[in-house]
């Protein structure tokens, strides 16, 4: 296989429900040493013919299907043990770097590339952040 290509293609599996896939691309230099890595999260949706109709407006969605809105209130930066999370900062973009941030009284560590994913709203098994506990 040609290891010098600049375009990578792959085929995702067919899914019957919206599915999140996570993968990491590792790039090596001419000596075969790691030079960079990038983590990706890809959401695969069912083919149009497999999509279920949306529920009627009078149907209340399951509690776990409701995504809370992000807070517009930014916590004070005073006395945080780590840098305060910033919605415009790219986290996890450097080789082997999984930053720790403070947000709303907790510390969070990024699991893969993330920008704009508020830690307290994205720390589930499929979320970009791990809750390290209160500070």
Structure characterization notes:
Residues 47-87 are annotated as: Disordered. This is Chitinase. It comes from Salmonella enterica subsp. houtenae serovar 45:g,z51:-. One of its GO terms (molecular function) is carbohydrate binding. With 135 residues, the protein is mainly beta. It has strands at 19-28, 34-44, 100-103, 106-110, 129-134. A 3-stranded antiparallel sheet has the order 3-4-5, with no helix packed on it. A hairpin with a 2-residue loop joins strand 3 and strand 4 (106-110). It is flat, with a radius of gyration of 19 Å.
Brief rundown of the structure:
Residues 55-75 have a biased composition (Acidic residues). It contains no helices and five strands. With 135 residues, it is mainly beta.
Helix content: under 10%
Oligomeric form: single chain
What radius of gyration results from the CA coordinates? 19 Å
Distance between the termini: 49 Å
Strand segment count = 5
Average pLDDT reading: 78
Note the total helix count.
0
Q: How would you sum up the global shape?
A: flat
Q: Name the structural class.
A: mainly beta
Biggest sheet strand line-up: 3-4-5
Low-confidence stretches: none
GO molecular function, one term: carbohydrate binding
Region (Disordered): 47-87
Biased composition (Acidic residues): 55-75
InterPro entries: CBM_sf_5/12
Q: What is the fold's blueprint, element by element?
A:
Elements: E1 19-28, E2 34-44, E3 100-103, E4 106-110, E5 129-134
List keywords for this structure.
mainly beta, two-stranded antiparallel sheet, 5 strands, Chitinase, hydrolase activity, hydrolyzing O-glycosyl compounds, CBM_sf_5/12
């Amino acid at each position: 296989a040609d290891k010098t290509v600049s375009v990578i293609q792959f085929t995702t599996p067919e899914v019957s429900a919206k599915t999140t896939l996570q993968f990491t691309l590792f790039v090596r230099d001419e000596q075969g040493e790691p030079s960079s890595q990038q983590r990706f999260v890809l959401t695969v949706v069912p083919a149009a013919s497999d999509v279920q109709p949306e529920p009627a407006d009078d149907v209340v969605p399951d509690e776990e299907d409701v995504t809370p809105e992000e807070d517009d209130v930014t916590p004070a930066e005073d006395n945080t043990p780590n840098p305060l999370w910033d919605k415009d900062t790219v986290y996890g973009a450097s080789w082997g770097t999984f930053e720790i941030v403070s947000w709303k009284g907790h510390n969070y560590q990024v699991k893969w590339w993330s920008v704009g994913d508020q830690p307290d709203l994205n720390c589930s098994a499929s979320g970009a952040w791990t809750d390290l506990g209160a500070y």
